Amino acid sequence: MKNFKLTALIILVAAVVSCNNQQQAGETELAVPVSIENVTLHNIQQFINTTGTARANQEVELNTEIAGDYHLQNNPATGRKFKLGDRVQKGQVIVRLEDVEYVNNIALDAKKLNLEISQDEYEKQKSLYEKGGVTLYELRNSEVSKTNAAYDFESAQISLAKMNVTAPFSGVITELPYFTEDTRVAANSHVASLMNYDKMYMDINLPEKNISEVEVGQQVLVTNYTISEDTLSGKVTELSPAISTETRTFSGVIEIDNPQRKLRPGMFVKADIVTASKESTIVIPKDVILSGNRGKYVFVVERNNAADDRRITTGIENQDYVEVVEGLKKNDRLIVKGFETLRDDSKVKVIR
Q1: 41 and 311 in contact (C-beta within 8 Å)?
Q2: Architecture in CATH of 29-46+279-350
Q3: Which residues, listed in sequence order, are joined to residue 221 by a DSSP beta bridge?
Q4: HEC secondary structure over 19-52
Q5: Looking at CB atoms within 10 Å, which of 38, 129, 237, 313 has the fewest?
Q6: How many angstroms separate the Cα of 207 from the Cα of each of 101, 211, 217, 220, 245?
Q7: pTM of the model
Q8: Digit-coded pLDDT (tens) for 156-188
């Protein structure tokens, strides 16, 4: 009988210990490991994304206007002949042509002398007219001679300037076909190409649904995969009010500021048109938001290490983040990892 009671007591103790162990194990299993972030205030911008090709704001092909002997000029900045990639200033001579016969036919010095004589004669006739020494007709004739001489001299200067191929704007040489020095080139020969890409532009086509969101003057953030660490600033400068019946899109133009010339003509770029922005507001990652019958919600950790499902109201958003208008406050402990299997009041263990 004693052995029976002792055996029963041992079984009872073992059952109690087993139950306690199972209870502790159950409590341990219920504490879900999670990572959290404290809710803070941030700025957020809402975008419309588009892509396109960046083009130089100014570009030109430079051709000779007359035939002549080819002479590539020195770059004053380097002291050497101009080459591909060199910057030139507006009005700088890139190529000079020489043709003695052409210069002689222009007779610039003779036309300059004729202009000086005509000017002196006009001043003489004007003085005599004021004293009654000549008629108005004679004065007008001398004025016509002076004017014609001025036109002749100006035309000679224009003809002489055709011997110089000059930069019409400041920019970078992007093409420089090779010609042997001092060889004769024909009129209308292509001798250089020039681009100014301190400012650039890109043509865009946006879906019909965005036509009410995009306006001229909106800020644009421009990036390229080769300069992903740099974001360039731009703005919408043109928008078409018409929708294409074929593509259901509308067109526009974005101007890009490129002062350091990091973006190159022809590069494929991504443009984010800023349609809305907020400063110092609650912003959270989009991927922590869940949806249920009662709307959107997230999980936060309460002081008793229990998960609380918070219903939230969202505002503007972009590809990665969203503004929370209601439901969260600053310093709330937002669960950002491990929330997928949680329910309201689930026990959690914060592992950050």
Answers
A1: no
A2: Beta Barrel (2.40)
A3: 233, 272
A4: HHHHHHHHHHHHCEEEEEEECCEEEEEEEEEEEE
A5: 38
A6: 62, 7, 19, 17, 12
A7: 0.72
A8: 999 999 999 999 999 999 999 999 999 999 999
